[in-house]
Amino acid sequence: MQLASLLPLAALAVAAEYNPNIHSSWETLTPNAPPPSGALTVLTSSFGIAVSKITDEAELSSISAYESTVTLSSEEASSTEFSSSSEEPSSSSSEVAEATESPDLSKYLTVVSAKSDAALSLTLNDTVLVDSAGRIGSIVANRQFQFDGPPPQAGAIIAAGWSITQNGTLALGESDVFFQCLSGNFYNLYDQSLGEHCNAIRLQAVEFV
């Protein structure tokens, strides 16, 4: 297994605990595409995420070409449909559900790290991403990835639809591509590029040891 440098809690944190048995209207705020085939949508044991920069020039060119067609708008209510993962999008929810019945976690969590108090610790509850403080992973109107609530802040446009692909990366809908964008002296994460100060990345799921 590979060792990873975990994403710290402060990088995404913006409160009652999430209760998966209580349906909330914000859970319908999902991407317009299902998770990739075979993706994991439930993981009750805690895990972390680590940033993995995309460096392949051909893939970066493809991502850039797609992103140039995307108009950032506060009124958008769906995530990008681009997927550069090697996996094909699932054509039915049953294909994803089969992966959650008795999954071999070693296929999904191939990177490990020691857990620290500063590390972002997550669980995955039927495509809802929850941190250790009970906050919900969401995409807000400016396309930033953050944790808040529950419920997520009023500006949230996506609050469910998360999964872990068979490549061990965090996906939103069918896409596992995110963007790390410089804002002043620090970086924020987004599901769409905001311009030249952004790097295409993947978020690797990390097993705590």
Report a brief summary of the structure.
This protein has helices at residues 57-67, 93-101, and strands at residues 2-3, 43-53, 111-113, 122-125, 128-131, 136-140, 145-148, 156-158, 162-164, 170-172, 178-183, 186-190, 198-208. By secondary structure, the protein is mainly β.
Indicate the structural class.
Answer: mainly beta
Query: First CA to last CA: what distance?
Result: 11 Å
Supply the number of structural domains. Answer: 1
Q: Based on DSSP secondary structure assignment, what is the total number of beta strands?
A: 13
- What string gives the helices and strands in order? EEHHEEEEEEEEEEE
Note the beta-strand portion: 25-35%
Contiguous helical run count: 2
Q: Quote the average pLDDT.
A: 77
- What's the story with the biggest beta sheet? 8 strands, mixed
Family: Belongs to the PIR protein family.
Pfam family, one: PIR1-like_C
GO biological process, one term: fungal-type cell wall organization
Keywords: Cell wall, Secreted, Signal
Structure description:
One of its GO terms (molecular function) is structural constituent of cell wall. With 209 residues, the protein is mainly beta. The chain has one domain. The chain contains two helices and 13 strands; from the N terminus they run E-E-H-H-E-E-E-E-E-E-E-E-E-E-E. The chain has helices at 57-67, 93-101, and strands at 2-3, 43-53, 111-113, 122-125, 128-131, 136-140, 145-148, 156-158, 162-164, 170-172, 178-183, 186-190, 198-208. The radius of gyration is 16 Å and the shape is globular.
Layout of helices and strands, plus pairs?
Blueprint lengths: L1 E2 L39 E11 L3 H11 L25 H9 L9 E3 L8 E4 L2 E4 L4 E5 L4 E4 L7 E3 L3 E3 L5 E3 L5 E6 L2 E5 L7 E11 L1
Parallel strand pairs: 1-3, 3-13
Antiparallel strand pairs: 2-4, 2-13, 4-5, 6-7, 6-8, 9-10, 11-12, 11-13
